[in-house]
Automatic annotation (TrEMBL), chains A, B:
The keyword Thylakoid does not apply. It comes from Microterricola viridarii. This is DNA-binding transcriptional regulator, LacI/PurR family. Transmembrane segments: none annotated. Keywords: DNA-binding, Transcription, Transcription regulation. Residues 197-211 have a biased composition (Basic and acidic residues). GO terms for molecular function: DNA-binding transcription factor activity; transcription cis-regulatory region binding. Signal peptide: none annotated. Gene3D superfamilies: 3.40.50.2300, lambda repressor-like DNA-binding domains (1.10.260.40). It comes from the Bacteria.
Length: 353, 353
DNA sequence: CTGAAAGCGCTTACAG
DNA sequence: CTGAAAGCGCTTACAG
């Protein structure tokens, strides 16, 4: 039989059972190992399977019958590449895969754009981790809730009944801001993460803040306000170096209005602000201090050692994965809020004058 | 009805059909949009679905019935984190997700360790991309072949009948080696990628090379031999900076035997060799020249600009994804071999003496 | 320890 | 345009 022909007529459990001279039920038991089957019978079944090139029970049929697919979905708020370019997300992903080990489940990457045949609305997943504070969260959550799929949100309030794994965004930012104040800064500006579903770039305004759909962004803004009540700034269109650079240029170009310190809401954005400062001939930290958030090593940023708030990204992922395992076991786990640690690098210093 | 109760009795297509007063077939047609259904009927079905909180056809039943799961597997040769730490793999992954867009399929992350309930042996995937030149390839391929699942291998010969997406490992390395020879180097050593399934660290010996299970490693060694016939060196236990550092220390510690140039088989390994040189008080490239492979930006390596062979990682992934799409459409695509581009950075120079 | 039966939820020819 | 029927491949009570 050629490969092509074989592909058109793969053997089924029934075929194997027939050849082994047992019932399908018995053959099934032999494969699952979950029932009492005599050694002789088991071996007859396996021999038949081998003879027929049977690769084992079809997972599609198993999951229909069992009501479980053995797959955990991870909803990214953007295309796969973008998520993979963010070190924080990678660490969370790895943490999740660690957390769900007891499930032996695979990780299915999903985006919340709703494109493609396989989406949040119909992916064959048993549970889902929502990564990142996506503005589109509400819609995603509604679909998942309708489907009765357990979910946990990492960063972001997805609904009162949905477990949240978060960090101390407000307090951590407050501590970073206090560090700047202690250095003597008073003219400080923010470079925030996206605020709305369109990820609109631009100045931070009370209107836009009021309409924020990103809890993380809002919380970190609030933390900065605790120290610098009137602080303003700009919103980036994503968390990456280029967006940080654009924001930095907008903030630092005019010597008249230039802040002496910038609070960026991610390390990638902070790195971009540093790039912008360099382009404008400004020294960091002599002319501008830059504070980040995340505590990831940013590619090519050396010899700068970013002053930042280090958050436990992998631990967050692991906690999320563990929570899903518990929910699938019928338990009702609590959410977790982790603490970030202030790291003093070499990108902050007292203001020049 | 409480959420918990709802979770125990999710409505089915049959329920929706009954409420809409139509047959299940018609309701199915209404949802799939693939059959002739009158507007009035369709709306009645949707109204019933809404009233019952029906989230749409169960993907598990659909995939059993249709024989397709809408999921493409990506087999990583190591744990998720390790793959995500390798920029080359991330670029390939992103390329794959781009290549399978026409399928609208999700990407399921799998490792070839065989652990967990969902593995290569039973994952509900329609097709699979094998990433990286894993030594465990043979076993993975055998399982997939038995299951009749179309696959494509990125880097690595998986079998005569399996499409390969590769690059010019031998020729690219040859060009890099020639660059070193032209600079005047003659005492050159290799730091290779793993050679065997155990990823054994240690000196390169004819025996070990003969038993290599990694085509990529062997091809790159062969390319170096075209220029430096007797070249030896050490094998790293993985492609990361720390392994490169260990290899570099082994190679550079003894001033008597120290090479004037090192050919590393990945940029990450090259970065590690540079770190080792620094630790030993050697200057790069003044005391030791270092050549990499991949053309990725290595975190924290600035101001070094690695001399390397730049390979088109994302394009490889895309080609792999596209090949799978074609195979699923019943076509028989060819493999592709891409070319790498030599990049002259600042880590190679004529030997000191 | 083994088998007959029912059914997981859907889609797809096939009739009408 | 709509419906009745069969079946995708398996697992799970239930009997024996």
């Amino acid at each position: 039989m050629t490969d092509a022909a074989a592909a058109h007529a793969r053997p089924t459990l029934a075929d194997v059972a027939a050849r082994a001279g047992v019932s399908a039920s018995t053959a099934s038991l032999a494969f699952s190992g979950s029932g009492p089957v005599s050694d002789a019978t088991r071996e007859r079944v396996f021999a038949a399977a081998k003879a027929l090139d049977y690769a084992g029970p079809d997972p599609r049929a198993q999951s229909l019958r069992r009501g479980r697919s053995g797959i955990v979905g991870v909803v990214l708020e953007e295309r796969v590449r973008a998520a993979f370019l963010d070190p924080v997300k990678i660490q969370m992903l790895d943490g999740i895969s660690e957390g769900i080990v007891p499930l032996g489940a695979g990780l299915l990457l999903l985006t919340d754009t709703g494109e493609g045949a396989v989406s949040v609305a119909n992916a064959p997943v048993d549970a889902v981790a929502l990564i990142g504070c996506s503005p589109r969260l509400a819609h995603t959550v509604a679909q998942l809730r309708l489907r009765g799929i357990p979910m946990v949100a990492i960063e972001g309030h997805a609904g009162d009944d949905i477990i949240e794994i978060s960090i101390d965004n407000e307090d951590a930012t407050r501590r970073g801001a206090e560090h700047l104040r202690e250095l003597g800064h008073s003219r400080v500006a923010l470079v925030t993460l996206p605020l709305d579903p369109e990820r609109t770039r631009g100045p931070l305004t009370p209107e836009r803040e009021a309409e924020s759909t990103s809890a993380t962004t809002s919380e970190r803004i609030a933390g900065a306000r605790l120290v610098f009540p009137g602080i303003g700034g700009v919103t980036a269109g994503a968390s990456d170096v280029e967006e940080g650079r654009l924001a930095g240029l907008a903030l630092l170009a005019d010597p008249e209005t230039r802040p002496t310190a910038v609070i960026a809401q991610s390390d990638l954005l902070a790195a971009g602000v540093i790039r912008a400062a360099e382009e404008l001939g400004l020294a960091v930290p002599a002319d501008v201090s830059v504070l980040g958030f995340d505590g990831v090593r940013v590619d090519g940023l050396a010899p700068y050692d970013l002053t930042t708030l280090v958050q436990p990204s992998a631990a967050k992922g692991r906690a999320a994965g563990e929570a899903l395992v518990q929910m699938l076991a019928g338990e009702h786990p609590e959410g977790t809020c982790f603490s970030s640690v202030f790291h003093r690098g070499n990108t902050t210093a007292p203001p020049a004058r």
